[in-house]
Amino acid sequence: MDSTVTLWTLNIDASPIDWKLAASLLDADERQRAQRFVFDRDRRRFIGRRAALRQIIAHHAGTAANDIEFRYGPYGRPSVAGLPFDFNLSHSHGFLLVAVACETRIGVDVERRQDEAIDPAVLQPYLAPAAFRQLCAESPQRRQQAFYAWWTRIEALAKARGTGIAVTPATQLDGSADDLLARALPDAEGQLHTWYPRPLEVSPLHAATLVLSAPGRAVHIKTWSPALSH
Ligand SMILES: CC(C)(COP(=O)(O)OP(=O)(O)OC[C@H]1O[C@@H](n2cnc3c(N)ncnc32)[C@H](O)[C@@H]1OP(=O)(O)O)[C@@H](O)C(=O)NCCC(=O)NCCS
Prior knowledge:
Elements: E1 5-11, H1 19-24, H2 28-35, H3 40-61, E2 70-72, E3 78-80, E4 86-92, E5 95-101, E6 106-112, H4 129-137, H5 140-161, E7 183-186, E8 192-200, E9 206-212, E10 219-223
Parallel strand pairs: 1-10
Antiparallel strand pairs: 1-5, 2-3, 4-5, 6-9, 7-8, 8-9
Helix pairs in contact: 2-3
The structure holds coenzyme A.
């Protein structure tokens, strides 16, 4: 792999997936997680995304998808020992993003934009006071856009760090929803990195942000064709 970031997209709900084959790629822990979903649709989305994640990692690493052994950080960040690249995934309503890159930590978040007006107060714990005031002062339409830009940035940063959003409020973000302020913050293991957020155009329905610990990387957005079809 070179220094580019590969961002794989997959609409799980619209893909012809052989669910038996997909499930056969998962390990015992993933199968147990799959069993815990109440609704079939959520279970299928989980099986589809973990099978696709395994295939994408296998594609980049040159290994077999069902040989991959995940381990998890203190707040649930998945990783695989010995890989020459980092990865992270995010999903929203059946739409999956998997980001893969060498020599950088990586975090990604995607959210499907809702039409209903959103209360910006949800973001108050995560934003510096000036940034929150600026968000509230936007026109309703701009505020909706800025809300999703902030929200995906907060989550992608938390996921690159491996902390999860419960830890991030201690370091409130400043700037505006449009700028690309880099921040130096420790990851979940205590190592300091500078984090570079980047908004992504992945679909007209979704907002998405990528956060890297390396600056200036080219990003290639590609559609994953699951080798999971009938
Ligand atoms: C990580 C987190 C921000 C994800 O939010 P989300 O928008 O609901 O979900 P996304 O679709 O964007 O991402 C989910 C994926 O991120 C990955 N992930 C989970 N925890 C992660 C973490 N701490 N850092 C990075 N990635 C993480 C998983 O692979 C997950 O996919 P899966 O469900 O197929 O396993 C949120 O779940 C969180 O804050 N988790 C922390 C939990 C925590 O603090 N637990 C206490 C200690 S056990």
